[in-house]
Amino acid sequence: MEMLSYLIPISLTLGALGLAGFFWTLKRGQYDDPEGDANRILSPDYDDKPKP
Amino acid sequence: MANVSASSAREAPPARELTTVDLKNADHLISLPNIHCAACISNVEKGLMAVPGVRNARVNLTRKRAMVEADSGVRIDALLSALERKGYEAYELDPAQLSPGGADRTARDLLMRMGVAGFGMMNVMLLSVAVWSGAEDATRDMFHWISAMIALPVIAFSAQPFFLNAWSALKAGRLNMDVPISLAILLAAGMSLYETARSGEYAYFDAAVALTFFLLAGRYLDFRTRATARSAAQELAALEVPRALKLIGGAEVTVPVAELAPGDLIRVVPGARLPADGEIVAGRSEIDRSLLTGETLPVLGETGSQVTAGEVNLTGLLTIRVTAAGVDSALHRMADLVAVAETARSKYTSLADKAAGLYAPGVHILALLAAIGWWVATGDLRIALNIASAVLIITCPCALGLAVPAVVTAASGRLFRKGMLIKNGTALERLAEVDTVIFDKTGTLTMGAPEPLGLEQLDDHQRGVALALASASAHPLSVSLARSLRAAGVLPADLDDLAECPGDGVSALLDGRTVRLGRAPWIGADPLDQTATYLSMGEGPPIAIAFHDQMRTGAVEVVAGLKAQGKSVILLSGDTDAAVAAVAAQLGLETARANCRPEDKVAEIATLTDAGHRVLMVGDGLNDTAALSAAHVSISPATALDAARVASDIVLLGNDLAPIAEAMETARMSTRRIRENFTISTVYNVLAVPLAIAGLATPLIAALAMSSSSITVSLNSLRLR
Questions:
Q1: CA of B400 to nearest chain A CA: how many angstroms apart?
Q2: pLDDT band for position B176 (50/70/90)?
């Protein structure tokens, strides 16, 4: 049972990491153009280097 | 968004210049109604980047827009024509009209609250699994306490929108959906905290957080649909960048229309729309009034003629003294009348409102009765409150809150991809009820662009002369005539002394004889009853070249499609009998009325409505606006006047009419889905509520009932895509 005292904080930390990641994507505006992003990945234009 | 320094390094402007460029003037927003795929994105971006001076271009496919960062010297026309050469319809947007910041911030805010609620829900649910599977005593209490530590801050942050809405409704003495929602969340969280402190068996933290999450999802979808519609409506307003050429001390200055005042002198170049009401003080031209009255025949404007904002100057340069501008202009007064008519128009109660009207009081009464019943039966207030909160959670309106937004989002997304913009939340429901469709002619079924008829009756010599004369003018009839003749392989005749006489026509010398192309009175011909131009060869009688209006793409298909769906289709036009009859025959329409004044159209709609029909009006002109707002639901093309677009519920973004028939189908399907969703959530409630009232609703049952009903409803809505 004392295992819980490690596992629960670990699981909460991992969850919080995910939440932080979500905030980051939100801030970067990654939900502003979902359709465009879904299509952009199909275009070979920026295969070698990302869009400047 | 984009790394400006890297792209500007390509053209290597000095760093100083970059900072001095006034971004507000250099940035352009372009609306691209027809883009839909990865190839479009890269074509548009490459096309824009190829224009000299453009530093960066980025397409937003979701909003069908392109944002361009460019040096201040770059003209918007260059960008638009670059796109048109690539085959994309492109329109300038006025960045000042669009306020992207506000809507985006609210959407992000909702999304963030949803993310936090999702995080909380996942963790609390996981912790609850231990309790459901039989954790006891100290272990259970610990899990409950950890759940509480996660759930309470999450609820405090994420459920704020519901609390605020409920509070403002209560302050105004009303009940809305948010009142039972807030009550359920607060009661569940409060009771669970109390139970946890008393080492009780049941805590509903998971349910309270899940409730918040699902409702926020519905709220976010709802907001996004509205925001898209609103921003697109703003976008339409931004389509016409209102500018006027004002004469100040003899020099032309470009000013915003808002700055015009009565008494100002303005110059209107051929092809431009009149920015204000006024009187012609110099110049002579033909004026196209089709957007205002529906008549396709241009009228002559001379010194002293009164002109109205919204009319299009066709041939000559005009100088106009402004008599009324902006909100005082006839155009705006009409738009105001429409706004008044709209508020007076009987309010349609949407399915969601009907459902909420039944739901909110019902749930409160049910929970209250359950609480009273248990209190009387057991005398234990704690049990009674527990039961009441279980009832509130189980009857949670998640499914109800998701049922409509999810369907409307899916349906309007589908229609948006086809080039239709739903401006009004209940438009789809109303569209589904339509059984009669009324079309306007000029600008709606037809393009308002003329096409010459009977060219084969001219001999080769006459055709050559006509082409040479027509090529010299920018008048729409001449342009169209020249295009058709060139397409037929005609070579222009050799003419001397070509001269355009604004408002009248073009004249030239051919072997010493004067040949002319232009208006009937100028040529000396008897005018026909339809749009026509007249050719004089210097000898013999003048030859009339008649024009008919080019049919809009998809007009034939949409009429056929609507008839196949069993709707009656009617044509009402302000144009002459001959023109209306020709179009009606071409489309196979039996019912067509010509010479309709705006009042006639409204009267016709009122008659049909009184007879129990639900009327869809499709129109574009100022003469249609009253009819558009009188009809049960209305559609206008993007080329329509501002006032007409404001009055209509749905706007066609592209040039094609065909999506209208499909939209009716989609609307019927989405209404069916909404009803199905209500049925599904009712079934869940009917199954689970007795359990809750009987006191058998464990947190596990509550969580299962809520999640599964929300998920079923969402999946059912997605079938529409």
A1: 26
A2: confident
CA distances from B46 to B31, B86, B89 (A): 16, 10, 16
Architecture of domain B448-551: 3-Layer(aba) Sandwich (3.40)
Interface of chain A toward chain B, CB-CB under 8 angstroms: 1, 4, 8, 11-12, 15-16, 18-19, 22-23, 26, 29, 31-36, 39-43, 45, 51-52
Q: Does B122 touch chain A (CB under 8 A)?
A: yes
The residue extents of the domains of chain B are 4-93, 102-233+348-408+669-718, 243-341, 448-551
CB-based contact (8 Å) between B414 and chain A?
A: no
Work out the average pLDDT over B373-377.
Answer: 90
Q: Tell whether pTM > 0.90.
A: no
Lookup result for tokens 């947007």: B93
Mutate to test the interface with A, among B62, B64, B109 (most CBs of A within 10 A): B62
pLDDT above 50 for B19? no
The average pLDDT across B460-467 equals: 85
Residue type, B181: I
Q: Using an 8 Å Cβ cutoff, are B371 and B679 in contact?
A: no
pLDDT of residue B326: 66
Say yes or no for a CB contact (<8 Å) between B61 and A31: no
Residue B433: partners with Cβ closer than 8 Å, 6 or more residues away = B614, B632
CB contact under 8 A, B7 and A52: yes
Chain B nearest CA to A48, separation (Å): 15
Give A-chain residues touching B67 at CB under 8 angstroms: none
Q: What backbone torsions phi and psi does residue B318 show, to the nearest 5 degrees?
A: -120, 140
A32:B122 CB<8 A:
no
Q: Do B3 and A19 touch (CB under 8 A)?
A: no
- Is the complex ipTM more than 0.90? no
Residue of B nearest to A7 (CA): B127
Q: Tell me if residue B440 is catalytic.
A: yes
Cβ of B62 under 8 Å from any chain A Cβ?
yes
CATH fold match for the domains B243-341 and B448-551:
no
B64 to chain A: which residues are within 8 Å by CB?
A: none
Q: What digits encode the pLDDT tens for the residues B143-174? A: 899 999 999 999 999 999 889 988 988 888 77
Closest CA to B488 of B471, B463, B465: B463
Question: Torsion angle, CA of B693/B694/B700/B704, rounded to 10 degrees?
Answer: -60
| CA pair distance B192, B210, nearest whole angstrom | 14
Amino acid at B522: W
pLDDT tens digits, B560-601: 888 888 888 998 887 778 778 888 888 888 888 888 877 788
Nearest chain A residue to B8 by CA: give it.
A52
Q: Tell me how far CA of residue B9 lies from CA of B4, B13, B156, in angstroms.
A: 8, 7, 48
Instruction: Print the SS3 string covering B33-54.
Output: CCCCCHHHHHHHHHHHHCCCCE
Tokens of B549: 């209006």
Q: Looking at beta carbons, which residues of chain B come within 8 Å of A15?
A: 119, 122-123
Active-site annotation holder among B178, B288, B440, B504: B440
User: B244 forms bridges with which residues in the sheet?
Assistant: B255
**Options 3.30.1120.10, 3.30.70.100, 3.40.50.300, 3.40.190.150; which CATH number does B4-93 get?**
3.30.70.100
pLDDT of residue A21: 92
Interface check for B61 against chain A (CB to CB < 8 A): the answer is: yes
> Where is average pLDDT lowest: B183-197, B291-305, B326-340?
B326-340
- The H or E element containing residue B533 is strand B532-536
Rounded to whole angstroms, the Cα distance separating B440 from B449 reads 15
Share of chain B above pLDDT 70, in %: 87
- The highest-level CATH class for domain B243-341 is mainly beta
CB contact under 8 A, B3 and A52: yes
For residues A9-37, average pLDDT: 86
